[in-house]
Amino acid sequence: MAATDLAATRRQLLQSGQAGKLDAPGLRQVLVDLHEFWLTSKGAELGVRPQSGYAIVAVGGLGRGELLPFSDLDLILLHDGMPHDEVAEVADGLWYPLWDANIALDHSVRTVPQALQVAAEDVSAAMGLLEARHIAGDEDLSNLLISGVRQQWRTEIRDRFPAVVSHAQDRWRRAGDIAHRAEPDLKNGRGGLRDVQLLGALAMAQLTDGMASLRPDSPGAGPQVAYARLLDIRTELHRIAGRPREQVRAQDADEIGAALRIGDRFDLARVISDAARTISYSIDVGLRTAGNALPRRGLAKLRRSPIRRPLDEGVVEHNGEIVLARNAIPSKDPGLILRVASASARTGLPISASTLSRLADYAPELREPWPAEALSDLLVLLGAGHHMVDPIEALDRTGLWGRLLPEWGAVRDLPPRDAIHTWTVDRHLVETAAHAGSMTTRVSRPDLLVLGALLHDIGKGRGADHSIVGADLAIQIGNRFGLWPQDVTVLSEMVRHHLLLPSIATRRDLDDPATAEFVAETLGYNRALLELLSALAEADSLATGPGVWGEWKASLINDLVRRAFRLIDGDELARPDALTSEQLALAEAGGFSVDIEQADGPHTFRITMVAPDATGLLSKMAGVLSLNGLRSHSATVQSHAGSAVNTFVVVPLFGSPPEAGLIRQQLMAAVDGKIDVLARLDARETESPIPTIGSVSAPGAATSAGSTDPAVDGAGHPKNAVPALFAVAPPRVLWVHHDAEATGPDPGPDPGEVILELRTDDRLGLLSRVSSVIERHGAQVRWAKVTTLGSTVVDTFCLHLADDGEAARTALADDVLAVCPPPQPRSDDDGNGPDAYGGTARSGVPIS
Question: In the chain, N or C: fewer CB atoms in 10 Å?
Answer without folding.
Answer: N
